[in-house]
């Protein structure tokens, strides 16, 4: 865990490693909140970002096979396993 010092005017410096991991860059705007003594910084624009259904297109590519024949074979195996 990194430690930082609060300077005059309550200024802090985010350690480089943590800033890089969080994708924080110079001039980014952060929202700050406090709850039960825990201070949280969140880059503006990431909180509650809405995603389109199209963002998930192709997410399962290759799961059932790479060719149409492989996919059909996997589907047939699945359908054959269903109780009727």
Describe the structure.
With 84 residues, this protein is α+β, with helices and mostly antiparallel strands. It has a domain at 8-43. It is built from two helices and two strands. It has helices at residues 16-22, 68-81, and strands at 30-35, 38-43. The chain has a two-stranded antiparallel sheet with strand order 1-2. The chain starts with 15 loop residues before the first helix and ends with a helix.
Task: List its traits.
elongated, 84 residues
Short description, anyone?
This protein has 84 residues and is α+β, with helices and mostly antiparallel strands. The protein contains two helices and two strands; from the N terminus they run αββα. The radius of gyration is 24 Å and the shape is elongated.
Query: How big is the Rg?
Result: 24 Å
Share of helix, binned: 25-40%
Main beta-sheet annotation: 2 strands, antiparallel
Number of helical segments with 4 or more residues: 2
Topology order in helix (H) and strand (E) letters: HEEH
Which word captures the global form?
Answer: elongated
Widest sheet: strand order?
A: 1-2
The count of strands amounts to 2
Low-pLDDT segments, ≥5 res: none
Structural class: alpha+beta
Give the oligomeric state: single chain
Quote the average pLDDT: 87
Q: What is the distance, rounded to the nearest whole angstrom, between the alpha carbons of the first and last residues? A: 56 Å
As a percent range, the share of strand residues is 5-15%
């Amino acid at each position: 865990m990194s430690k930082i010092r609060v300077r005059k005017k309550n200024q802090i410096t985010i350690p480089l490693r943590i800033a890089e991991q969080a994708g924080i860059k110079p001039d980014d705007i952060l929202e700050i909140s406090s709850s039960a003594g825990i201070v949280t910084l969140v880059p503006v624009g990431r909180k509650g970002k809405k995603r389109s259904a199209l963002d998930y297109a192709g997410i399962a590519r290759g799961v059932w096979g790479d060719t149409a024949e492989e996919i059909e074979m996997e589907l047939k195996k699945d359908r054959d396993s269903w109780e009727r």
